[in-house]
Every structure is written in C-alpha cells, then in structure tokens.
C-alpha cells in the first residue's frame, strides 16, 4: 500500500506460540520498536521496519493483499492457504523465504488409540476432522484414498469422541493433546516450523533493499543459533 512504500512492514502473531520467539528473533537482528497504545502496531526506531500484530491465520492474506511485506507464520498456515489459492485457480501470492528454527510441530493424522493401524487404506470412506482441508485433501489424493473431510476451526481432537469424525488431522507438538483425547498419531503430512514468508512477486527498490538488509541480518542471527 502507498503508506508503507518507504518502510517495510512485517506481520507477526499477536499472541500465541510464535509471538514471543518471532519478536525476539527480529530484535536479535537489531530492530527495535515503539509500541502503539493499542499494541497492534510497533513503529520501527532503529530501522524503518514496522511490526503489525495480528492473528497468524491472517498473515498470508495480508502479504497477498500487499498490506504487509513480510510475515512470520507457521509453514502449516502458509501451506494451507497456498493450497486454497491453488484450488481456487489463483496464482501463488506468497512463499516461504526462510525456515526460522522455532515453533517445530507436525501436521499429523491421528486415530483412536483402540484402532489397530494397518495403513492409509483404513481411511477409505472414513470422516476426518481438520482445520487444514486443503493440505489434508491433497495428501488423501496423493494416497489415492476417498474420505470425507470434516472442517472444524478448533478443538479438532474432541471430534471423534463427539461422534463427528472417525479420525483427525491436526498439529502435534508435544503430543499431550492427542493423549488427552485417547488418540494416536499414525501418519505425518507435513513437518512444520515458523517461517519467514514473503510475496511471490518482487518488491520495489526501497523495500527490496530493506528486505535484503533484513535477510542478511536474519541469516547471521540464524547461523549463530545453530
Ligand atoms: C495446537 C494444535 C493442537 C495442539 C498440539 O493447538 O491445534 O491442538 O496445539 O500441541 P501438543 O501436541 O503440544 O498438545 P493450540 O493450543 O495452539 O490452539 P488452536 O488449536 O486453537 O490453534
Ligand atoms: Zn491460529
Ligand atoms: Mg488445537
């Protein structure tokens, strides 16, 4: 947008698992900010690089619309929304620029602990609850399995107990949520972590230079961490 033309704007999660590590990583790149009173916008002081604090699910769309230039978001969210765009016949609008090494988790298929898991053919004709319909449908198609995808925006793990689904596909980090719901992971669809996302298209000159500066510092910071 016109107002962000000479400054770079990065969207990060306002609260949640990626919020603090994302900010800490950017701070380790030498960025510092002055927070707005509503704590939704952080004005860059050391460099003209501002932060917008948003819901993680909104980040790919903000990049696609050019409201934000970059974002820190889970690969799972980016992949799902990229899949939705493809399914809708739209061009890719964002892509993963860097893997950031925190927020590791996996998108997994999980079934009731009581199932004797023999393989993916067992999913034929079953109902699978998920918040990731594009990634799940793509995986099912690759496996050659016809199953019903039940879309839930949260609390996916409870669906089998409620009789809404036979199996689920959701993020697994420690595995505690699966265990608490008597489910076991049986297949991994995607290894995920926080990533720096950017547009599929090129920046203009000013923002392109700022983005390159940030990437150089980020790569330095990531090298020190690993
Ligand atoms: C995520 C994910 C799982 C849970 C997995 O949910 O959707 O439910 O974490 O973590 P675990 O394996 O360590 O138990 P989150 O609590 O982030 O909330 P959300 O589902 O509302 O996004
Ligand atoms: Zn979310
Ligand atoms: Mg959850």
Task: Describe this entry's structure for a reader.
- This protein is of the alpha/beta class and 226 residues long.
- It has two domains: 135 residues, Periplasmic binding protein-like II (D-Maltodextrin-Binding Protein, domain 2); 87 residues, Periplasmic binding protein-like II (D-Maltodextrin-Binding Protein, domain 2).
- Strands 2-3-4-1-5-12-6 form a seven-stranded mixed β-sheet. It has a five-stranded mixed β-sheet with strand order 9-8-10-7-11.
- A hairpin with a 4-residue loop joins strand 3 and strand 4.
- It is elongated, with a radius of gyration of 19 Å.
- The relative contact order is 0.19.
- The site of 1-O-pyrophosphono-5-O-phosphono-alpha-D-ribofuranose has 11 residues, from strand 10 and helix 6.
- It is found in: Cytoplasm.
- Its cofactor is Mg(2+).
- Secondary-structure element string: EHEEEHEHEEEHEHEHEEH
The outline comes out as elongated
Structural domain count: 2
CATH-defined superfamily of the largest domain: Periplasmic binding protein-like II
First CA to last CA: what distance? 36 Å
Low-confidence stretches: none
Fraction in beta strands? 25-35%
Enumerate the distinct ligands.
Answer: 1-O-pyrophosphono-5-O-phosphono-alpha-D-ribofuranose, zinc ion, magnesium ion
Based on helices, strands and strand pairing, what is the structural class?
A: alpha/beta
Q: Helix fraction?
A: 25-40%
The overall pLDDT average reads 95
Compute the number of helices.
Answer: 7
Topology-level CATH name of the largest domain: D-Maltodextrin-Binding Protein, domain 2
Main location: cytoplasm
Catalytic activity: 1-(5-phospho-beta-D-ribosyl)-ATP + diphosphate = 5-phospho-alpha-D-ribose 1-diphosphate + ATP
EC number: 2.4.2.17
Subcellular location: Cytoplasm
